[in-house]
Amino acid sequence: MKLALIGFGQAGGKIVDRFVEYEQRTGVDVFTDPVAVNTASVDLQGLEHVPEDNRVLIGQSRVKGHGVGADNELGAEIAEADLDEIQGALDDIPVHEVDAFLVVAGLGGGTGSGGAPVLAKHLKHIYTEPVYGLGILPGQDEGGIYTLNAARSFQTFVREVDNLLVFDNDAWRKTGESMRGGFEAINEEIATRFGMLFAAGEVDGNAEVAESVVDSSEIINTLSGGGVSTVGYAAEDVERSAQGGLLARVGSDRLSDRGSDDGLDSANTTNRITALVRKAALGRLTLPCDIQGAEKSLVVVGGPPEHLDRKGIERGRQWLEEETGSMEVRGGDYPLPSSDTVASLVLLSGVHHVPRFKELQQVAIEAQDNIAQRDARSEENLQQLVHDGAEELTSLF
Questions:
Q1: What pLDDT score was predicted for residue 176?
Q2: The pLDDT value given to residue 52
Q3: How far apart are CA 359 and CA 357, in angstroms?
Q4: Is 34 helix (H, G, I), strand (E, B) or coil?
């Protein structure tokens, strides 16, 4: 799937930068002329893989390149005012080669939280291709203002995109982990999961063609209908034998090479793939939720061709159909001849049972009430400070 990729704000830019690094490292060709947009010049300067010509600094007349300070209303205003500047960078993208747009932003800050929904609305007005969002939810320990920003941004962003893919930082930060180390690990998870999703079906002329092709239409159809999506992922290492063949392993348990002409046990291969699909769906999702009730799903199994098995993928797809209660579950394989892992990816679209959103909204309402009470007290305290005992004085104006 070919994507026009735009990172908005600090988190969005860093994730796009990691996507480009993932593309370079794996050799896939997915992201077309990636763009990073920000109000803070230092954040754009810190990017390593997004071309400098594709880094767009907006809001210079308002914030002088210093960011918006977690004020997402200001971020939205600046994005609206500087849409022409952003569009100028997007005009270089060969849209006729693109299957969809992907706008990436952290929802807790100011620039991305406010600007990403504005950009998504603009893109949908200009182009006919689908516009997807990838929104990053802040952790609970990041503070009330970031939670309030995220709740307000989410409400707007999900309305302006064709589908909002969500990654919840709170579900991925490890206890005792440094802030920098935590975000590095999180960005790698994002790149691995969504990189594999969008790379499925994008192969060059020399690559092996999948038995059951997962192409851009499968992804687009799964994401159609709007709403919120989450992604699960599970992988298993494979190692090369002394003779150069591949033997699968789970921990220290290696599969027997008896039972099939190509040296792999087909029954074990089938069972392994089915287990990986279950693990991906029931393990740690990018947005934790109850998968029952998901409107649509997609299963992709990638790895060395000799480790891929149509029967295993079909069994995994049927299991997911029963588990979600949805009749729209697509599936296919993604041959990766040079890979050292077999991986299963599950995309769940249109999920509804998401406890995290209820928590987010509750904390956001409390934060909003606290801010209103603080502002009222602040005005009252100022009046008391200025006027107490100063009845005989007159002001200058």
A1: 60
A2: 95
A3: 5
A4: strand
Q: How far apart are CA 258 and CA 393, in angstroms?
A: 98
Beta strands in the chain (DSSP E): 3-8, 31-38, 55-57, 100-106, 131-137, 163-168, 228-240, 246-250, 253-254, 296-303, 329-335, 341-349
For 3-199, CATH number out of 3.40.640.10, 1.10.540.10, 3.30.450.40, 3.40.50.1440 equals 3.40.50.1440
pLDDT of residue 371: 67
**Length of the chain in terms of residues written:** 397
Domain edges within the chain: 3-199, 228-349
Nearest-angstrom CA–CA distance, 116 and 149:
13
How far is CA 198 from its chain centroid?
11
Distance from the Cα of residue 270 to its chain's centroid: 30
**pLDDT score at 213:** 74
| Identical topology for domains 3-199 and 228-349 | no
In the chain, the largest separation of any two C-alpha atoms, in whole Å, equals 101
3-state secondary structure of 88: helix
Q: At 326, phi and psi to the nearest 5? A: -100, 145
Prediction pTM value: 0.87
Low-confidence ranges of the chain (pLDDT < 50): 205-206, 240-263
- Can you tell me the distance from the alpha carbon of 354 to that of 395, in angstroms, rounded to the nearest whole number? 55
Q: Which residue positions form the known binding site?
A: 10-14, 110-112, 142, 169, 187
Q: Collapsing DSSP states into helix, strand and coil, what is residue 90?
A: helix
Residue environment code for 59-81, b if the CB has 16+ CB neighbours within 10 A, otherwise e: beeebeeebbebbbebbbbbbee
Torsion, Cα 360 361 364 370, to 10 degrees, reads -130
Task: Convert 279-310 to b/e letters by CB count within 10 Å (16 or more is b).
Answer: bbbeeebbbebebeebbbbbbbbbbbbbbbbb
Q: Which CATH superfamily is domain 228-349 in?
A: Tubulin/FtsZ, C-terminal domain (3.30.1330.20)
Asked whether the CA dihedral 217, 221, 222, 228 is positive or negative, the reply is positive
Annotated binding site for GTP: 10-14, 110-112, 142, 169, 187
Q: What angle do CA 139, 145, 149 make, to 5 degrees?
A: 80
